Amino acid sequence: MLSACSRPGDGANRTAPPHAREAGRVKPPEPPAPGTPGGLPDTPTPLDEAPFTATSAQGAANVVQIYFALLEAGRMREAAKLRSDGRSPDLSAYSEYHAQVGAPGPLEGAAGSIYVEVPVVIYGRLKAGGDVHSSGKAVLRRVNDVPGSTASQRRWHIERIALNRQP
Q1: In 3D, which of 60, 96, 66, 93 has the Cα closest to residue 81?
Q2: Beta strand residue intervals within the chain, DSSP E
Q3: Which of 119, 128, 134, 149 has the most CB atoms lying inside 10 A of its own CB?
Q4: What residues contact 9, with CB distance under 8 A and at least 6 apart?
Q5: How do the domains of the chain map onto residue ranges?
């Protein structure tokens, strides 16, 4: 696991069910454990902690990590700049929003571009009450270092995020 973004809640959530309250405080939402349904893959090989380049698979995973940290901090415009479509999700229904970012898959090439998939788990709490989580992958793309490509095109951008809502 690369990251677990978190932000403390803004006090007691009065819509939380009684079993979620502990001594007047609401337990924070938690993601499923790695290797369990809805959790990140449970990979026995630790991530390489050596420095990485911005164009590597680890550089792509770093973009995903930054994206979700920006969303969690409410910095939607900055997060949107990391997506190919320039859009960010509507998080107005959430009182808490968090993400875990997993280790990137292998780089794959196609028609002058490089792609990589990065597993993600989204978890949080709705303002209306109840914990939610989704798992899936972020697919990132960057243009190869080809003549005529711009510096912006040669940076990783989130092409799409495909999530499956978990019960």
Answers
A1: 66
A2: 3-4, 21-22, 25-26, 94-101, 108-110, 113-126, 131-143, 157-165
A3: 119
A4: 26, 28, 95, 96, 125
A5: 3-44+51-165
Identify whether the C-beta of residue 40 lies closer than 8 Å to the C-beta of residue 1. yes
* CA 92 and chain centroid, separation: 17
Quick check: 124 and 131 in contact, CB under 8 A?
yes
- Residue 128 in contact with residue 68, Cβ under 8 Å? no
CA 76-5-167 angle, to 5 degrees, is 90
As a whole number of angstroms, the distance between CA 47 and CA 99 comes to: 18
Tell me the pLDDT tens digit for each residue of 43-77. 766 666 777 888 899 999 999 999 999 999 999 99
Please identify, in words, the CATH class of the domain defined by 3-44+51-165. Answer: alpha beta
pTM: 0.78
Instruction: Look up tokens 């709705």; give the residue.
Output: 126
Tokens of 13: 């959530």
Listed residue (144, 146, 147, 150) closest to 55, CA to CA: 144
- Tell me how far the alpha carbon of residue 130 is from its chain's centroid: 20
3-class state of residue 161 by DSSP: strand
